[in-house]
Design a protein that fits this description.
Elements lengths: L5 H17 L5 H27 L2 E4 L10 E4 L1 H24 L6 H20 L3 H19 L5 H32 L4 H10 L4 H18 L8 H7 L2 H28 L3 H22 L5 H22 L2 H32 L10 H4 L1 H15 L5 H15 L3 H27 L4 H4 L8 H16 L8 H14 L3 H10 L1
Antiparallel strand pairs: 1-2
Helix pairs in contact: 1-2, 1-4, 2-3, 2-4, 2-20, 3-4, 3-10, 3-13, 3-19, 3-20, 4-5, 4-10, 5-6, 5-10, 6-8, 6-9, 7-10, 7-21, 8-10, 9-10, 9-12, 10-12, 10-13, 11-12, 11-17, 12-13, 12-16, 12-17, 13-15, 13-16, 13-19, 13-20, 15-17, 15-19, 16-17
Length: 499
């Protein structure tokens, strides 16, 4: 349990060290961020292995006993998310080594990147709801700045829209926390769950649930709360887009909402129905809107909205099988979408544009980008035998098992639409005859630092199906499912660990 605070301490220390030495040592940002994310990846695996053995790890900040003190808590769900986040963060940090050279004062980029990562990791281990909110804000504000890092008009406009929508979301969340605190007189999430379990259902809890669904729904970009995402994800630097789509919307939105609804409130039929409606709309609207995109990053952004719908659908059905499919799809989408956004940065460097109508022959120009891009796209589309196929199949089977054949049909339809718009948009980009004026004259070959992360993410997307086989990764995934399936039993497990 002594390792638990390091997932916040390491990136936070790097975030403050980088400005101190970045002005004097040119490669300080690259070295410190690379070392920090590598250490975080190692620590997250060590924590995950400990969670497999001990089930719950609790670190008492200042040695103050909960619920009065501030605890850091890691269970199967947060350990699973920590591993997912820090895989993507390490790959994005390595990719950024060469990508961000086009910016001046790159140490500012790395400092903000580390600050965002500390906030995201902090949300995952927060044991009380107010500190979860504070850490969520640290990650969000850093994200606003990173979206605007290019300082062009598009970047500044996107960051402004992202910030405005983020502030609205934060207001909903903070108001919900205030009502929840006034009703339970505690901020510790396990203690809060115990208090709510002992009280009769109150109308104020319905209001709080709606506030959290709106607030965290905005953070997750569920339709109709999605308007900020296509601007922010398409305008941000490629490593930031990979983090935003790969892990940020899942941690700040999906994870936080899921933790509260399942483990503090307890999933109810009314909340389930609301989430199912939002999930279905997101799946279909994201797919339909993606058809009209010519900007490759906006295409990937709308695809993220659709795939978040799949995750929300699996969570909303709330059976063990659907929860397995949702978490497995979260992992697969994190890998594949991060891969695609990193590749979009490479394609933009080679062609000098993000307009898919002005690019072609990427596969022949750069086989690494072309073939890894195919792996990422096939996983998102649900093509066998990639991990995305199995996670979607599990969600569809869970819909049928739960007696929702219409939802299973919608999930299949959304997958067909995904395949259709990816095929329509990316076929000429990858397989078209290369244009010398774009691919050679304007283009730059990608470096090893930009190629290695996408190759590793592609390999992980191929072998992720092994998580369904008996091995430690499968145990961790099952532990994460068990945490959600147990509902408000979370309170007893965590309170026992406090002692």
């Amino acid at each position: 349990m002594q390792l638990v605070p390091y997932v916040v301490v390491i990136p936070l220390t790097a975030a403050f060290l980088i400005p101190l030495v970045g002005k004097k040592i040119k490669l300080a940002g690259e070295i410190l961020s690379g070392a920090a994310t590598f250490l975080l990846l190692a620590v997250s695996f060590l924590i995950a292995s400990s969670v497999i053995t001990h089930k719950v790890l609790v670190y008492k900040v200042g040695n103050w006993a909960p619920p009065a003190g501030i605890p850091m808590v890691v269970d199967g769900l947060s350990a699973f998310m920590l591993v997912t986040v820090n895989i993507v963060a390490f790959m994005a940090a390595v990719y950024a080594i060469d990508y961000v050279k086009k910016f001046t004062d790159t140490w500012k980029f790395y400092s903000l990147f580390m600050l965002m990562l500390s906030g995201i990791n902090g949300v995952l281990i927060a044991g009380d709801i107010f500190n979860m909110y504070v850490l969520l804000e640290i990650a969000a504000i850093s994200g606003y700045c990173l979206v605007a890092f290019g300082t062009g008009p598009d970047e500044l406009e996107a960051a402004f829209k992202y910030a405005v929508m983020g502030i609205v979301a934060s207001a909903f969340i903070l108001l919900g926390i205030a009502f929840l605190y006034s009703y339970t007189s505690t901020l510790n999430m396990a203690d809060m769950a115990s208090v709510l379990a002992a009280k009769e259902p109150a109308r104020v809890m319905q209001f709080v649930s709606v506030l959290f669904i709106m607030g965290f729904g905005l953070k997750a970009a569920l339709v109709p709360f999605h308007a900020w995402l296509p601007y922010a994800h398409s305008s941000a630097p490629a490593p930031v887009s990979a983090m935003l789509s790969g892990v940020s919307i899942k941690v700040l939105g999906i994870y936080a909402l899921t933790r509260i609804l399942f483990n503090i409130f307890g999933m109810t039929p009314a909340i389930s129905s609301i989430l199912i409606a939002l999930a279905v709309i997101s799946m279909l609207a994201g797919s339909v809107l993606a058809f009209g995109q010519s900007d490759i990053k906006r295409l990937f952004a709308y695809s993220s909205i659709s795939q978040i719908g799949y995750i929300a659908l699996g969570l909303a059905i709330a059976t063990p099988l659907s929860l397995l499919g949702a978490l497995f799809h979260l992992f697969n989408h994190s890998l594949a979408k991060s891969l695609l956004f990193l590749n979009s940065g490479s394609i933009e460097r080679m062609t000098g544009t993000r307009d898919m109508n002005k690019m072609s022959g990427v596969l022949s120009t750069s086989p690494v980008v072309g073939y890894t891009g195919l792996v990422g796209a096939f996983s998102i589309c649900g093509m066998p035998p990639l991990g995305g196929f199995w996670s979607k199949l599990i969600i569809i089977l869970a819909c049928l098992q739960a007696g929702h054949p219409v939802l299973a049909f919608i999930a299949i339809l959304a997958s067909v639409l995904t395949l259709a718009y990816y095929f329509k948009a990316l076929s000429p980009v990858l397989f078209g005859r290369g244009r010398r004026d774009l691919n050679v004259a304007a283009g730059k070959r990608i470096s090893f630092a930009m190629a290695a992360p996408v190759v590793i993410l592609a390999c992980l997307s191929i072998v992720s199906v092994a998580m369904l086989l008996p091995n430690p990764a499968n145990v961790l995934l099952k532990d994460a499912v068990a945490i959600l399936s147990s509902g408000k039993d979370y309170a007893g497990n965590i309170m026992g660990a406090f002692k």
